[in-house]
Amino acid sequence: MVKNSSSYVGRLAPSPTGDLHLGHARTFWIAAERARQAGGKLLLRNDDIDANRFKFDYVATTIEDLHWLGFTWEEPMVSQSDHIPLYRAALQTLHTAGLIYPCAHSRRDVLEAAGAPHEGSEHDEPVYPTQFRPPVDSPVPELKDTISINWRFRVPDGEELTFQDGSAGKQTARVGHDFGDFVVWRKDNIPSYQLTCVVDEIAMGITEVVRGADLIRSTFRQLLLFRALGHTPPAFYHCPLMLDDQGERLAKRHDSLSLRTLREQGVTPEEIISKFGDLL
Prior knowledge:
α3 (84-96) crosses α5.
């Protein structure tokens, strides 16, 4: 049960890269219920920052599907594409503090140096080899208006990070072992998921982040960014993932389980939501 507080601010953060599926619906339902139980408010954020994957048509269908399921939120919707100046200001703060550096190594370079295949969410990345780091006292080039090289955050190796998750309980990671230096701005001139999430939660005043359990490791990276930017992180609630019949987590490739397909088959919102009632 969420502690009742009118200061509670939660969010739904769909990405317009495909149709919503049952896994999204369940996570969003939990987010909405936690906001309702807290007597707080719920915001909608359109995670449209990745121009290579973003499809404009999915913004409208996502909103339509959410309304169909009965979700309501505070207007207006926030779009990440409107936050570019905020992301750039945060990057400059990290640069001024000497916490980031340019990195010319490819993902393949990092994978080969790590010596093992990488597994995790789409926003996760392999542990960055320390031998690829520039020396701490080496000069760092200025940020260009248009960025064409990855910029990484230098993590404090050996530090133990802990947070209490509202669903999964106590979570602990050792910095430099469980994750390493991570990308905050990509070479295609797009801010990373880690940076955009942190800046968005700060800008929107989010007090609790509700999302899938596959993003727990991302939370540790984001805790470092909250600290570096001088802000207290929100609470976190990572929902168990919904799996298909083969035990694989649902993804947007599961067209048969998309909300749009289920609607066409005559499934009602009440039938979908009735499956989520025992999750809190």
